Amino acid sequence: MVVLPEPLTLRDEAGITLIVALMVMVVLTTITYTAITMAISSNGTARSSNAQQDAYELAQAGVNEAESILNASSANATSPTLLGCTANGTNSTTPCSSLTGSAPGGTFSFYGTYAQTATNGVWTITSTGSVTNPNGGGAATVQRAATATVTVTGGGQGSNISVWN
Hints:
The chain is of the alpha+beta class. It contains 1 helix and 7 strands. The protein has one domain (16-164). The chain is 34% helix and 32% strand. The chain has a 5-stranded antiparallel β-sheet with strand order 3-4-5-6-7. A hairpin with a 2-residue loop joins strand 1 (85-88) and strand 2 (91-96). Mean pLDDT is 85; it is low at 156-160.
């Protein structure tokens, strides 16, 4: 007598464990991959953000350097060429040659234009900070700019006049 195999029914659960295990593995692999990708992306974003902040701080250092030049007792704060620009009478005009400096992590450059008014003078200082791009790969340096306005009034240190921000 020939014995035929028992027909499969919908209630037969043979092999379902393998299918469930494979589905769980796919879900866990997808979650792990997503978590790793997000961590790597967040790390790159944090490094870029830190570089932007460092560049801005260097730009501020350039503004501070320009203000210290203006406030030096040996400087004539009303000289339109004091911060790198050319003179046009009592005012500054472009072109300007940037003055440069460095600090840990990067460099800064700055220049200032001077405008004499009837009662005082006004310096407009422009500074740029630069740091190496942390993402590498030949990416351009990270640069940020800062601008400040300084009013020059009479009186102050010896022959120099006071500089107030």
